[in-house]
Amino acid sequence: MISEDRIRELAGRRSSTVVTSCYLDVDGRRHPRHADYETQLERLVRDGRERAAGFGPEAARSVAGDLDRIAAWVRQGFDRSRVRGLAFFACSDDGWFEVVESPLPVGNGVAVNHTPHVRPLESVLQAYERLAVVLVDRQRARLFRFELGELTEHTEVFENTLRSVTAAAGPGHPAQGSRGAAVQRRIGEAAHRNLKQAADVTYTELQRRPVDHVILGGPHEVVMEFEGLLHPWIRERVVDRLAIPSTAGADEVRQAALCVEAAVARRGEAALVERLRDAVATGAGVAGLQPTLAALVERRVDLLLVSDGYETEGWRCRSCNYLGPLGRACPVCAKPMDLVDDVVEEAVEEALANKCRVQMVRESADLDVLGRIGALLRF
Q1: Can you spell out the DSSP letters for 208-248?
Q2: Is-contact 23 120, C-beta < 8 A?
Q3: How confident is the model over 217-269, as pLDDT tens digits?
Q4: Which of the 8 DSSP states describes residue 93?
Q5: How many other CB atoms are there within 10 angstroms of residue 347's CB atom?
Q6: Strand, helix or coil for residue 156
Q7: Domain end: 103, 127, 151, which one?
């Protein structure tokens, strides 16, 4: 399972030679046959061997062993029912091999470096937040959790708490006149009690396993009444209200959750970029490659923002971990630095290893204008 803790642990690893990082898309919707993704794996193995040659013969041997082990792991077979992406991290010289299975697709790619290439995992983790979907009507309630692209139903939490509204009418046929009004009142009261009980159960369940956002669904009037009965802690997490029936199928619920999640993610990213722009104006933030790398080296970064897909060469000092856009001598310790293919990835890994927050931002013209990378500072 992908988690922030696991990504940070990977980012903090250092090898005696080099680490091989390999990402393989095994999404059955795009690659229905094993041969489809095995062909991609063959290309990645070739690319990995070529990249390793630039690190010297010792590193090349280690990477060759890594790639052989990765290929063997894939070809021996694995359960694709819940896996759409694979990430491999290996160093034969250190006897280290780790596989991360992702319920979401990943882009094919291979990297050879002194540290694991974790930025794609961070992107996967941030692309999908924890969501709860609660569907209600006058007689029933259903609870779904949507995490890392998977929808699971947990309606059993409402068992033995909701009663039939029609039972409130009592035996016999519908009544007319004043008796009919009394029956309707009892039905309304029973429906309200149902919603109140459902609201209480929802609070208990989401306190037990918290989520980032809540989506409500059902008839508009019922949803509005239900929302008013929710605990404030739940209400402040409600991000959308959808006119989908409480009897909706899992596919309909999942598609609705995906749409809401995408909108929430874009709003959150836009708010962070706006905050960065304001912080740069006041000195509480930096933007652009060189100022951001300098802030990382000085351990001043609180939150690192990076345009998804931004890559550029740079330099790293293996002696003091200095990062910079220019080389070759380290300006801190004066020792020779290594040219790295992607200093942005190095920055992400450095930030994660130092417990900074990292936010990958997709399609933000405002962040592009700022230099595609920036940071909010601690001081």
Answers
A1: HS--SEEEEES-HHHHHHHHHHS-HHHHTTEEEEE---TT-
A2: yes
A3: 999 999 999 999 999 999 999 999 999 999 999 999 999 998 898 888 889 99
A4: G
A5: 28
A6: helix
A7: 127
Give the burial class of 108: count Cβ atoms within 10 A of its Cβ; 0-12 exposed, 13-18 middle, 19 or more buried. Answer: middle
- HSE-CB for 182 with a 13 A CA cutoff: 5
Residues in the chain predicted with pLDDT less than 70, given as ranges, are: 1, 127, 160-180, 182-183, 187
Rg (CA), the chain: 26
The domain of 88 spans 1-127
CATH code of 179's domain: 3.30.420.60
Q: How would you label 115-129 residue by residue, b for 16+ Cβ within 10 Å and e otherwise?
A: bbbbbbbbbbbbbbb
Residue located via tokens 């941030």: 126
* Alpha-carbon distance values, 379 to 284, 302, 348, 372 (Å): 7, 9, 19, 22
Q: In whole angstroms, give the CA distance from residue 328 to residue 325.
A: 10
Spatial CA neighbour of 117 closest among 344, 299, 318, 363? 344
| Tokens 């990977």, residue located | 10
Do residue 187 and residue 289 come from a single domain?
no
Spatial contact of 135 and 253, defined as CB atoms under 8 Å apart: yes
* Same structural domain, 278 and 353: yes
Of residues 138, 136, 133, 137, the one with CA closest to residue 153 = 133
- HSE-up of 65 (CA within 13 Å, CB side)? 16
